[in-house]
Amino acid sequence: MVKRLEGSEKTKKRGWLSYAAVFAAGILTAIPLICEYLFFLPWISLISLFLAAERKKSAYRHGLVFSLGYYGTVYYWFTCLYPLDFAGFSNGVSILLIITAWVGLSLLQGIGTAFVPFFYRKLYRSDRPLLAPFIAAALWCVMEWFQTQFWFGVPWARLAVTQYKILPAIQSASLLGSLFTGFLIVTVNGFLALSYKKLRAEKKPEYCAAVAAGIVAVNFVFGVVRLSVYKENGDTVKAACIQGNIASGDKWADDSLENSLRIYVSLTERAVEEEQAELVVWPETVITTYLNLNPYAAGIISGLAKEKSITIAVGAFYTEDGNNYNSIYLFHPDGSVDENVYCKRHLVPFGEYLPMPGLIKAVLPFLAEMNMFSDALVPGTSSELFETEHGKIGGLVCFDSIYETLTLSSVRDGANLMILSTNDSWYRDSAAVYQHNGHAVLRAVESGRCFVRAANTGISSVISAKGEIKTYLEPLVDGYVAADVTFSTERTPYSCVGDLIVWLSFAFLAVTAAIEIAAKIKAIRRKD
Question: Average pLDDT of the chain?
């Protein structure tokens, strides 16, 4: 009896240690999203998750614990929003909203991510161990893709973003997208987990470790080769990003229009005089009114474009037929306004619109108050490219940039260059602004397009088609950055095939599941 109790205690202790290990693994996987120079951690940190996932009765729980460590670490920057006085909230309400957003989003995404180890356990077969890494990678790929399909699925914490500062590691995104880069990372972890299991069983693990090392080596070698041989073809212009560094509270003040125009006109004039900028990009909603109904502001920007003979992209609101949009206008060198207006296609839930308003107002009324605008904004429905003498320009506004399909559709419609207007002032100098900029790096590699990214308080950056951050301006400073950009005419494989890796993953998982079901049916018939 005593031995049985001791065995039970040991089993319970091992269980707690297992949960602690996967929670730590989640934190380690997320750390490169805060300190990008620890990029190597995700290539090894998932090992304990997939070892724990082989436990039949606790795979989902282990996945949930891992996810809470992962997303809880990534989204810690919600705390940097405090206080929300710029939105009119008291300190107490600010704390409640921030905790709700931090814990709620971590839990919401964790519930979905936990299905990866759950289904991994269902499909894993000890007699086919070499399939295990690919099952894990395919499940992870599908999970990250699902995060782009619903309003509550936010792909902010995508695994590939952990690598954005390491250019050779992310060039694989040009082939099959950033989901493919994440696929490779998970596959390497899967083979290392196999190697560890063989080592524990006193078997030779060399070939599993060698496969893992080979995947890493091939990915990096491909990246180095692509970086050395890839050339951008097309017209080159000098582009400048203007960063006025206007705090959130000041941006929405009564005199904000005059103040913003004064600051942005002055910085634009400097960029033209000092750097001979030809294309100038202003941040998201730098003009906090409907620009198409404000001839005063439009006249000043139009006059500046004509006087300096430059192209100016301006973030402002747009209204038409009773619908309100968060948009980008383009002013041509002759002072005319482009007939196309780009309207933000993926709005921020609870910030720009209220999802499921009836349910939210009834169950969580304080969340309904988070919406920044009295009237909900409407999402745009098309890429609305701007035609210039150098080529076509595609637009993105803030949240748009974390959804790769929006850039993909712009490129397929003919965009030769991408401009991105954003406002990350809510996050001050937290990891969020760097993570957001990392998504723009991935979009550049995937699409083979230069990105000109202007942010209200930072980070403003110019990114090459290879993902190189050519120049950038730190958060919370005012000024501008300028660099040459190319209106590229080349197409990457990803821009042609899109999310093929997702459909290949679906197909692989379906075939694997069918084989497993057939085997179980066969076993049942044998018993009969």
Answer: 90
